[in-house]
Structure prediction request, 328 residues.
Amino acid sequence: MFEVHQRFDSYISQVVRIDTQTDQIEFDWAVGPIPIEDEQGKEIVVRYITDLSSNRTFFTDANGRQVLKRVWNHRPTWNVSLKEPIAGNYYPVNSRIFLQDNVKGLQLTVLNDRSQGGTSPVDGMLEVMIHRRLYYDDLFGVSEELNEPGVDGKGLVVRGKHVLVVESILKSAARHRELAQQIANEPLVTFSTGSTESEYRSHLRLTFSGLASQLPKNVHLLTLEQWNHDRLLLRLEHFYQKDEDSELSKPVTVNLKKLFYNFEIVSAQELTLSANAPVENKANRLKFKYIPEGKIEEPMKITFDAQKLDVTLSPMEIRTFVLKVKRN
Prediction:
């Protein structure tokens, strides 16, 4: 691991870390408090500039799941005319933003640790806004300036992290999908006093897994919580999109019987995503008449086998179950 410490101004600095084992570059940045004594608002952005030819096209995620294609000054369903081209091309970035060079077969992905705004103002460039402080109201409905003074009245200090990955387009989904899960579910570091390391290790269990078998690489255990005294609520998520990866975008089957370590599943019932009705009730939902522009592909849906407890997940699918369990 190599580190480079940089300071750009009295209130802007970052540490760049290069992981030689994974070829990932981590940008640990700190910004603030932003000075406004000159009565000028400021928006602080990070720009990652490359020689990749992306044709002003980039991709952002939607709530950490679906990836959406963005094209500068373009909307896929109508002709757009933007009076504010910068703001009109900024999009929410919940977990990642990337661009591709189809000739070189390379993809540049930037993963963030919080929701931010991002764009690609120049071919081969990714821009992410990390902090801002405005002296005047921008007249977009809030009716006040974006000027949070913080507890000391000097303004907020923000610290965050970006992880940059350059990979072939074919392998990038496998890299950024798993890495985004790791960033979103990072463990919390805590400290304690009053015991030595040997005492700590002898009195506490330092490792634990509630899974008897490992989940497939494209499946995420989204929810496992107490429903009532002998029932648990379970959600499983296939977190790859269709055709993203030659293997990991395929449907996958998980057997619930062999999944958990410290309890036995007696029975299971599939519910709707909100867990307020049996999944069979979806058949009674309102159906809207519309004329599709092209062929509509419905995702493969395999009925849950309540006897074998086999769950098959299609790309981007989340399935919800209430489990009756017996503690081991």
Summary: The chain has a mean pLDDT of 89. Residues 169-184 form the longest helix (16 residues). The two ends are 43 Å apart (CA to CA).
